[in-house]
Amino acid sequence: MRFIDQFSLKDKKVLFRFDYNVPLDSSQNITDDSRIRATLPTINYALDAGARIIIISHLGRPKGKVKPEFSLCPVAKRLSRLLHKDVVMAPDCIGDNVRGLVDSMKSGDVILLENLRFHPEEEKNDEGFARQLATYADVYIDDAFGNAHRTHASNVAITKFVKECGGGFLMKKEVNYFQKCLEKPARPFVAIIGGSKVSGKLEALVNLIKRVDKMIIGGGMAFTFLKAAGYEVGKSLVEEDLMPMAAEVMKTAKELGVKFYLPVDCVMAPEISAEAETKIVPIQEMNSHWMGLDIGPATITLFTEALANAKTIVWNGPMGVFEIDAFGRGTAAMVHSVANSYAMTIVGGGDTDVAVHKTGESDKITYISTGGGASLELLEGKELPAIAALDACGGAL
Ligand code: AMP
Q: What are the structural domain ranges in the chain?
């Protein structure tokens, strides 16, 4: 796979696929522009190199229809502010009008095309649609890691129709960090897996258990493991059908000599509510009518000790229902433990990045992934379709 710094960009029309799927409030104001900021190194590099910059992206789920609330106009405005230069907003992403705008571009111009998902062909990986997008490009650069696990026209089919295809700096960083930790991790290598359900992370667990030295399980999914190990877990989140798989993962850990850590205490409540009564109990003392909603203080100590000698830590999924303060202490404490460890730390997926930002420790984490679903698929050991397409592309024009 080639990256942007391996292409000559001077005076070229460079088509960038970014992930500008930013959160908007009801007045169409961007509430978090980190996805736009994450693309600035790639755009600035191309500007310095004298390229003509054409940007495509999706936003939200308009389901193949033109819906003004999913327009990329607010993104054009913010990008213009961040770049200190005009960003032209095109009325569509295909058609004569857009072609005219692209044809009149000069070196250093930036144009953002309207939401790809206003066309149903985008999510169908339609070759005709991809061909139309490809006609804008001398060079195609995909920097939309957050969308790399999707097989869409703008990130997969398109690579068949542009001669020069590569990844941007964000893609390079994401791929390098995950590759480094999965293929040649500095050891001990510890995985912390949390979040709601085992089902969503089973493939990642199965892949990681073969690679790590220690596996730490928290969040709702821990209760399926605890129940499989014979504990009463009350009304905690349990996937009964996955208990045999959970037992299998623990058996594999034992066979491979992987140290496997489950919570030893938890914060229990009768319901998921900020007003609910809570109590901290050892796992052995969980009652049958409440649910476990966070890891307890003894678990925080145990997990923190387990991280003490780690050299690589990968973390996906919160330790509890961190959206509610009463059940957010475990996740916050683990953020501090990970941030203060002497390891290369990679965080991503679910809401783990949100939790890290919430605690203000982001600067102390080596790498925070920008793609939840995409990073989880890398942890599952899968090849992402967009990356496979860039690897394979050669220009079938
Ligand atoms: P995921 O997308 O699978 O990483 O799950 C993230 C979600 O898991 C968050 O919204 C948390 O509120 C939820 N979660 C974490 N711990 C628990 C728990 N003990 N019980 C129920 N939900 C949980």
A: 4-171+384-391, 187-342
pLDDT at position 75, please?
Answer: 98
> The domain 4-171+384-391 is classified under which CATH number: 3.40.50.1260, 3.30.300.20, 3.40.50.150, 3.10.290.10?
3.40.50.1260
**What integer best gives the mean pLDDT of the chain?**
95
Question: What local confidence, expressed as pLDDT, does residue 395 receive?
Answer: 42
Is 214 in the active site?
A: no
Which of 223, 315, 321 to mutate for ligand 1's pocket (most ligand atoms within 8 Å of CB)? 321
The pLDDT tens digits of the residues spanning 247-259 come to: 999 999 999 999 9
The CATH label, of 3.40.50.620, 3.40.50.1260, 1.10.730.10, 1.20.140.10, for the domain at 187-342 is: 3.40.50.1260
Among 218, 350, 371, 372, the one annotated catalytic: 350
Establish whether residue 198 lines the binding site of ligand 1, counting it when its CB lies within 6 angstroms of any ligand atom: no
Question: Is 373 in the active site?
Answer: yes
Active site residue 254: no
Pocket flag, ligand 1, residue 330 (CB < 6 Å): no
Q: Which of 12, 13, 35, 329 is catalytic?
A: 35
220 CA to middle of ligand 1, Å?
Answer: 6
DSSP track, 135-202: TT-SEEEE--GGGTTS--TTTTGGGGT-SEEEE-HHHHHHHHHHHHHHHS--SSEEEEE-SS-STTTH
